[in-house]
Amino acid sequence: MTDDLRAAALVSKAWPYEEARKVLARLKGGLPAKGNVLFETGYGPSGLPHIGTFNEVLRTTMVRRAFCEMSDVPTRLLAFSDDMDGLRKVPDNVPNQAMLTEHLGEPLSRIPDPFGKFESFAHHNNAMLRAFLDRFGFEYEFASSTEYYTSGRFDDQLKNVLANYQAIMDIMLPTLREERRRTYSPVLPISPVSGKVLQVPIEVVDAAAGLIRFEEDGTTHEHCILSGGAKLQWKVDWAMRWVALDVDYEMYGKDLTDSGVQSGRIAKVMGGRKPEGLIYEMFLDEKGEKISKSKGNGLALEDWLTYGPGESVAFYAYREPKSAKQLHIGVIPRAVDEYFQFRANYAEQPIDKKLGNPVHHIHGGKVPDAPMPVTFGLLLNLVGVMGADADRAQVWAYLGNYVPGASAEAYPEVDKLIGHALAYNRDFVAPTLKRRKPDARETTALRDLDARLAALPEGAEAEAIQNEVYAVGKEGGFENLRDWFAALYETLLGSSQGPRMGSFIALYGIANTRRLIAEALA
């Protein structure tokens, strides 16, 4: 850690540093009693990991790294799975639905794995979470709610909840509907009869001993909530965890704003304090509606990774986390090219600009400097005109005329981008590709361009070709050159937008481009 980097980090306006400074201020120059700063992310394992899980861990990791650049206090990141929750409904995307239906209400960690691979449904989904996080190289510690409850690690704070039972009820009851108030309890006992997580009113018998009393099916039970005998309602559970673990930082979505306020008040009643954190905006679908797993209107992380590299989704997640952003297939190409553009700028930037560059946070300061001789947009336009049957070898053959020494071995990242471009073209471009016929003015201009290209050598430089394209537009009666380029995109490429035409023609070849023009004029 250089002095220059630390000095720049302490004043940088990039959001991870602004968040990290909240944690630094929280410490007041001291070291936490636990000896480290604890960052936490939460995960509800009733479903499989998704892009929201990725974004939360990624963004928290960025804040953690920013903190490490401005402080020598050790840090930890805890990925906490709420796997003691009762199963409320059977997910649509898992097998053995009938079997799961029989176990509704039971803790996820006690329900058989519908996939038949692990000792419980929670163990299966926890394994998926860990594999998911490991795939992206996150540095974290995994924590299981079931293990923390049953081991007694939460026992002291469970007693604390009982000791402050009425104060917690006073916080929660005004937030509930009248019907819910009649049955609400911060403590959810695990039934000694059915094994289900019960939502029933309780009476505190002995807070210090962890004893409560409740009624189930006409039978009154006196029950110990310690060591796995109960779990807490999630808002109370959230607060209890903050206090028990002394969590310093946890971010969450805007939809949990009110819950965060209530949990923060409960943590204060329990003698602790709410962690620092960022309230981030939610992703929206193509229509501007909130993404919902039940609606299925979101973009799965696997979908993004089919059509763009992982760094591009990290880049998209980094940008303006407090602003709502649309998340759909159409945003991928631009995110890919912007990521590589910011990466190309990084090496020559002064330290303060580096810290504001998204790639610094994506790569933890270790930014690759491998050159990218071609943009993703240009590759998409190339495979678009090549057709749905285009393959990787054909693309490389074109690149060989455009990039000296072009090969998959020399440019492995380009090779991966080609795979993404082929997939994107196959699934989204080729099925809807439609080139419009040029109007009279555009027809004249295209004939002029064809004549000018015919006068150029086949291996002409992109800049020389671009000059001719410009000249045609200026002399062809186009008041706005954007109209000329739009005409080229729409008549030759079947797209509303496209690449720098000089670069595209140099890549695709003058003879091939003249064939496109002939097809447009036919």
UniProtKB/TrEMBL annotation:
Pfam families listed in its UniProt record: tRNA-synt_1f
A molecular function GO annotation: lysine-tRNA ligase activity
Residue numbers binding ATP: 293
Entry keyword set: Aminoacyl-tRNA synthetase, ATP-binding, Cytoplasm, Ligase, Nucleotide-binding, Protein biosynthesis
Gene3D superfamilies per the UniProt record, alphabetical: 1.10.10.350, HUPs (3.40.50.620)
Documented EC number(s): 6.1.1.6
Record motif 'HIGH' region, residues: 45-53
Localization (cell): Cytoplasm
Catalysed reactions, semicolon-separated: tRNA(Lys) + L-lysine + ATP = L-lysyl-tRNA(Lys) + AMP + diphosphate
Main location: cytoplasm
EC class: ligase
InterPro entries hit by this protein: aa-tRNA-synth_I_codon-bd_sub2, aa-tRNA-synth_I_CS, aa_tRNA-synth_I_cd-bd_sf, Lys-tRNA-ligase, Rossmann-like_a/b/a_fold
Motif ('KMSKS' region): 290-294
NCBIfam families referenced in this protein's UniProt entry, alphabetically: lysS_arch, PRK00750.1-2
Family to which the UniProt record says this protein belongs: Belongs to the class-I aminoacyl-tRNA synthetase family.
Protein name: Lysine--tRNA ligase
Organism of derivation: Sphingosinicella xenopeptidilytica
Gene: lysS
